[in-house]
Amino acid sequence: MIDVMARTSHRFIRLLPAACLALMGCRGDRIPEQPAPPESPAPPAASAAKPDSRPVVVAFGDSLTAGFGVDPGRSYPDFLQEMLDRAGYFYRVVNAGISGDTTGGGLARLDSVLSLKPKIVILELGANDGLRGLPLESTRANLEEIIVRLRQEGARVVLAGMTLPRNYGPDYIRRFENIFSSLARAHATALIPFLLAGVADKEDYMQKDRLHPTAEGNRKVAENVLKVLAPLLESR
User: Fold this and answer.
1) pLDDT band at residue 138, thresholds of 50, 70 and 90?
2) What is the DSSP secondary-structure string of 43-71?
3) Taking a C-beta distance cutoff of 8 angstroms, is the pair 55, 91 a contact?
4) Are 56 and 121 in contact (CB under 8 A)?
5) How high is the pLDDT of residue 114?
6) Which residues, in sequence order, are bridge partners of residue 160?
């Protein structure tokens, strides 16, 4: 009798886990599945940036245009943009200045300037030609070709006149300066007689190299440019 009870008890113990599992299944005691969290609404699609439809003024030049030696946003084209905005002129100024550029380099990259479809180009090249003693005939020829091609594409040109340090000798300096004035007459372009007027002779406006303006000097340069540029602009 004891043996029968022991065998029965042993069989019951073995069946107990299965019975319990079956019972839990029947009673629904399983851990309920958690509902999936609601999907976050998709962020609104970013609207495409509105294209800048303002007519383009390209400042095409060398380090004097690029803003050599000053903080970003302190070149003369940057100040010119601020002045145009304050005065209510609806134009976008593009800085196409490259430090060290010559008239030959400018001619080589003219297509990139033309691709901007500029209404006006402020042409400031030639100083590096003079400082390097390059043939003045080449300087003039390069500038003239740039002017002609710009005008053929419908851009108006503002030519920035330059000079050289006095140690280059009066004859060379005179012939160098004459390039700009004679080209302006020949092609009826607006002329800034000397881009650095009121700047080059002021110690506070020039960097230590005495060749490049400080930030405040660039502000003054922008004023020089605007005086000649303004008559070519249309108001907003």
Assistant:
1) very high
2) PPPPPPPPP--SPEEEEEESHHHHTTTS-
3) yes
4) no
5) 98
6) 192
Considering all CA atoms of the chain, what is the largest pairwise distance in Å, rounded to the nearest integer? 138
Three-state secondary-structure class, residue 120: strand
The owner of tokens 């490049």 is: 212
Query: What number does CATH give the domain 56-232?
Result: 3.40.50.1110
pLDDT at 121: 98
Q: Tell me which residue of 161, 158, 159 sits closest to 233, measured CA to CA.
A: 158
Q: How far apart are CA 64 and CA 126, in angstroms?
A: 11
**Which of 62, 75, 78, 212 is labelled catalytic?**
212
Which entry of 62, 63, 78, 129 is annotated as an active-site residue? 63
Check whether 74 has a pLDDT greater than 60. Answer: yes
Residue 94 has pLDDT above 70, yes or no: yes
Selected catalytic residue, list 115, 204, 209, 235: 209
63 is catalytic: yes
212 is catalytic: yes
Region of residue 145 (phi > 0: left; psi between -120 and 50: alpha; otherwise: beta): alpha
Strands (E), 41-192: 56-61, 92-97, 120-124, 156-160, 190-192
148-155 average pLDDT score: 98
Q: What ranges do the domains of the chain cover?
A: 56-232
Task: State which H helix or E strand residue 151 sits in.
Answer: helix 136-152
On the 0-12 / 13-18 / 19+ scale of CB atoms within 10 A, 27 is exposed
Which of these, 200, 195, 234, lies nearest to 76 by C-alpha position?
195
Residue 48 has pLDDT above 80, yes or no: no
